Each structure stands twice: as structure tokens, then as C-alpha cells.
Amino acid sequence: MERIRVPRLGGGRPRTRPDHLGGDKAYSSRRNRRYLRERQIKHTIPEPKDQRRHRQHRGSKGGRPTAFDKEKYKRRNEVERTINVLKTFRAVATRYDKRAYIFHGTVTVAVIRLWLRT
Description:
- By secondary structure, the protein is mainly alpha-helical.
- The protein contains five helices and two strands.
- The longest helix is centred in the C-terminal third of the chain and has 18 residues, at about 100-115.
- The mean pLDDT is about 85.
């Protein structure tokens, strides 16, 4: 996450943290959540049943349940499905291109072809 650099449209220093982060149950560890809280990054990560059960078993010492927005989590699924459709293009899936700007062009062409299909 430290390598994220999003350029600003009007110039200035690039952004180094996202507005919101979505993840699946595999990323719901305390360490990941603490890291996101320290960097003040809002996140939507579902809590697995075993973690929820353990937290409830501890009672008042278990802490509050994590906030979870189902609508934002549904949007994560849309992004994941779109990436899977992009991977149907062999050049995108195997990444034959050595340079990042050429790969970026390959992905752009694949997206345009998908857009023209619909």
C-alpha cells in the first residue's frame, strides 16, 4: 500500500491512500484492520463466522462488531467479475508485455473491445 501514487487532476502532490478499500474475508485479520485504522482508510471487509463467534464468546471484552456495508461489498464483486472478464484476453492474463506502458495499452484495447461488444 505504501507504493500507491494516484496523481491529482489539478496538479500537486499525488494521493497516497485510497478513499475506501474493499476486501474479502481473507483480509479481516486484526493486523490488517489496525493498519487501515492507523492510516485512516475506510474499509469494507466482512468478518468471518469464526472470528465473530470468538469475539462474541469473549463478551464485553471482545469489542464492538466491525462495521460492514453490504452495498459497497456488492460493488467489489462487480470489479472482481470485470477483472475476470479481462483475463479472458490471453495477453492480459499472461502479461507477455515487459514494459508497464505497453501492458497498460493492452488492457486499454481489451477494455475497448469489451465495451464495443455491449
